[in-house]
């Protein structure tokens, strides 16, 4: 995966937070890794990718952050039953927006959400993995792009 | 005027409902996938629909075709993260009248719906 491809997702992530959520977002430098030890937090929204590219995109965040995100999006109170929904929706939108650049052959699935912090997330060895760590209002989260 | 919000995300359904300030819209209905949307649409025959595209059961592009088959003059605004031209064209071919890319702010969704209503009014007169 080229840096320019990873940047598409960084831009999409920044745009989502700026438009829909607001607050103070700080994106750390994105990096490529060959390690299978990618970050994983309490809630992880996963989008499968097929078509011209294969792999997945995931966003992982703490429940504390997701609660604050819900409030920032206009929810009247923190409803934990919406944590799966909101992380799935953000991951879906950030991934879907990439089609503007990557084209309709970049096909995405509906979101799958994993609750609970996994020890590791393992990927096939021939996949490129890009990690985008960021903080939002002091909460740490990461976007991970894994494409063949 | 009734509006049906079709989106598999409850958070998005609520956000869309909170964002809309158009006086013409008096009642909101919601559906979480295309199949559910068709059932609610048959019963309630809303004038306006916002339609997500990536959904389980039946996706939005297919659902648009069904709704237009039931009520050809329905005003459907597709609201999706799939921001490529091919998807937009396919949704419009099936009968959607407008397209708004997620994420959006309150001003953008109200402007898009207002445009739809104005176009429908000028077509009718």
Can you tell me about this structure?
The complex is a heterodimer of chains A (148) and B (125). Chain A has 148 residues and is an alpha+beta fold. In chain A, 32% of the residues lie in helices and 32% in strands. Chain A has helices at residues 3-21, 63-72, 83-97, 99-102; strands spanning 25-27, 31-33, 43-51, 55-61, 106-108, 112-115, 128-136, 139-147. In chain A, strands 1, 2, 3, 4, 5, 6, 7 and 8 form an eight-stranded antiparallel beta sheet that branches. The longest helix of chain A is centred in the first third of the chain and has 19 residues, at 3-21. Chain B has 125 residues and is of the alpha/beta class. The two termini of chain B are 19 Å apart. Chain B has helices at residues 10-19, 34-44, 60-70, 85-93, 106-124, and strands at residues 2-6, 27-31, 48-51, 75-80, 98-101. A five-stranded parallel beta sheet of chain B has the order 2-1-3-4-5, with helices on both faces. In chain B, helix 2 (34-44) packs parallel to helix 3. In chain B, strand 1, helix 1 (10-19) and strand 2 (27-31) form a beta-alpha-beta unit. In chain B, 48% of the residues lie in helices and 19% in strands. Chains A and B meet through helix 1 and helix 3 of A and helix 1 and helix 4 of B.
